[in-house]
Amino acid sequence: MRLPRLQIWSQCRHIASKTDVTKLRNIGIIAHIDAGKTTTTERMLYFSGKTKRIGNVDEGDTVTDFLPQERSRGITIQSAAITFNWQNSFGINLIDTPGHADFTFEVIRSLKVLDGCVTILDAVAGVEAQTEKVWGQAKGIPKICFVNKMDRVGAGFSRTVKELIVKMNTRVLLVNIPVFSQPTSSTEPTFEGVLDVVNKKILRWTPTDVDHVNIEDVENNSPHWNELARLRESLVETLSEHDEDLVEYFLDTANGDYMAVPPEQIDRSIRKCSLANFATPVLCGASFRNIGVQPLLDAVVKYLPSPIEARLPEFNHNLPVEVSNKRGVVVNKNHNLCVAQAFKVITDPIRGIMVYVRVYAGVLNSGFTIFNSTTGAKFKVGKLVVMHANVAEEVKQLSSGEIGVLTGSTVSENVRTGDTIIAHNMKRDGLRSLNKEKELSLKINSIVTPPPVFSAAIEPRTLGNRRAMEESISALIREDPSLRVSVDEESGQTLLSGMGELHLEIAKDRLLNELNADVEVGKVVVSYNETLNISSSLQKRISEDGYHFEICVEPLEAATEARNENEEWHYLSNDDNYLVIEKDTNRLKDLDWPYQIPYDSIVNAMLSSCLVAFQRGGKKAHFPLHSCVVRVKSDWSIPSDLTSVTQILKISKSMIMEALDTIAETDYSILEPIMNVTLTVKQQDMGQVLQDLTGACKANILSIEDEHDVSSEQNFDLTFQTIAEEQYLPSDNTLDRANISSGSSINKIIKALAPVGEMVSYTSKLRSLTQGRGSYHMEYSGMEKVTSDRITTILENY
């Protein structure tokens, strides 16, 4: 689809300044599935001049959805990064994220490196379940809301904004509102533009241009003038609750006239309130019809933070941090210290493994020797590139606040998602930097991978294909750490586990068609776990060659209750398992570490032993262990001349397994994933749906609510309900949905907790029960012990 360039927003093509960090914006697009994230992104790229044509999701030719699976299904599966300019001088790094719950890890890791978010809301559906979830995941990050699909039948701007206030507990700042054409006897009003509250303009989109009409040129008694006056009053009043400078200007300079406050003053105030997370700017449009996207881009650069205004990353050490417009973030007063985080890994058919990084401090140069503080690996990085979806552009360096990609053969071997990258200019700072040891062990923004809830068996078609199968699975997991592979030691069966049925279906498709793995993939089953009911007996190893360990295994709950400050807790990825090392206060007093092997290497060896032992599983069904703690007593020791951790790995793994073997089968329990389920059904269908949930699905009903009854929402807050009632909103014929009190047309929201095993393929069952009128959404809640009456059935089915 091609459109003429709009002169009012025409762009220069030069690169945004890299010396002024204030001109950078790192933003993400988040929303419920099908709200229009990718469609909006495509329009942003076109109107910025980045692309020459607009991609279409339905036609499968979008820029950011470039995977074959994304284009064939019309959904976003993996987050995609792209860089473009706006208003000649602003550089925007944009990440388009998935909306489907199965790919929530893509959202989690993207949010770790973003400074601001654009939340897309469907004007027909309002604030949906996944929107609430991603909003919660982005807690603390300034946001802009864009009410999309205003051209659809049933669209309700004011209803959606009211839901936003109450469900998300946020004040709103209406930057613009929808404008509709005047209806005639034969036509309905159609969405054609927006009323710009800040600049006092009406913007109407035509196939070739945007018409701008100044409100001052319209008669004062027109509906638009009266609407603008009320909107301006509401906007200034809300801003004045947080911004004293605006109050002073309003009273002293504007003489109490809401219409006399200039746009620049209001923009500054909106930015101040947005960065403080006091309120959320709201705009509207219809991305598919190219309406409202340019004002949204203006709002991104006006109201969302630059890297130096955004929240600082979470550091594991208490080092001094400074910010400046020129250098960005400076850690430990060391201008030559570069700190970056790897948040995504992909495999490019030409360049090989590529690692996405966000640079937080300093400058990362092509060809630098860098240090991975997470793993202790030191290696040389190859060329640096900036990604434009799946097209790479080489750059010489990445500065503070920028997002780019590491390439090179050594990168694939030494960097994984979540790792912290450190680089020094040794010629300049040498060893004179304060706290150099802390710099080299610096870690930021830990990324926790949610546990998988479904699994599928994978087998090579022939024995000769096993190695190729393992390499393909390894490549898949390198890109998507929310997938997990395990091997049953007794049967030799390989299991691939993921976040949902669609997640595993996509993984299977990529294995067979993209990675060309010659494998057989079994049916999807639930990922069960086992846990301990009691602690193991203490295992001791005291040998003449200098190894001394005392180890036991405990249930997490018991270990947590007895937790104290003389313990180091190390999280094992997935399954809520931990390694606890009791501190030796006498050894801590020694200034010289008595061993040749670094302490971190010893800990990493023990962590690896824990992972292997826990993956072997429990005694009931050999399911992997969950919510368990390996405790290492404080008086451990190793030979002082030891230079390899191999023996430590062997000894600790053996001791953990021996400790687990001391626990009887009856003292193991099976755990199953429990899901938070939200169903939307008609009142007339509610009875049989509830009966099926509580009967066949073994669900625990939490609440039943009217869909648009904002007073009964789960996130209900009396303060924000009052704010929603007092907030001025333009007329909206869909607002009456919130006041429906009877009738079979009411939509009911059922919230429940249900075992995931009983919700497999629930879509077809719900469609049958509600004649296609019902819908549901699930997200992981936690693991719970299986009741005794269901254990036999689960084991037989598994």
Question: Short description, anyone?
Answer:
The protein is of the alpha+beta class and 798 residues long. The protein is 28% helix and 28% strand.
General description of the model:
- It is a single chain.
- With 798 residues, the protein is of the alpha+beta class.
- It is 28% helix and 28% strand.
- The chain is built from 22 helices and 37 strands.
- β29 (539-542) and β30 (548-555) form a beta hairpin.
- It is globular and about 95 Å long.
- The two termini are 50 Å apart.
- Mitochondrial GTPase that mediates the disassembly of ribosomes from messenger RNA at the termination of mitochondrial protein biosynthesis. Not involved in the GTP-dependent ribosomal translocation step during translation elongation.
- Its main location: mitochondrion.
Task: Fill in the keyword field for this structure.
798 residues; alpha+beta; Rossmann fold; Elongation Factor Tu (Ef-tu), domain 3; Alpha-Beta Plaits; 7-stranded mixed sheet; 28% helix; disordered N terminus; GTP binding; GTP-binding; GTPase activity; Ribosome-releasing factor 2, mitochondrial
CATH second-level architecture of the largest domain: 3-Layer(aba) Sandwich
Helix content: 25-40%
Rough outline:
globular
For the record, what CATH class of the largest domain applies? Alpha Beta
Largest sheet: 8 strands, antiparallel
Provide the residue-averaged pLDDT.
Answer: 82
What is the CA-CA span between the terminal residues? 50 Å
Overall number of domains: 5
Residue fraction in strands: 25-35%
CATH topology of the largest domain: Rossmann fold
Question: CATH-wise, what's the superfamily of the largest domain?
Answer: P-loop containing nucleotide triphosphate hydrolases
- SS content category: alpha+beta
Task: State the strand order across the main sheet.
Answer: 18-17-23-14-15-22-19-20
- Strands, count: 37
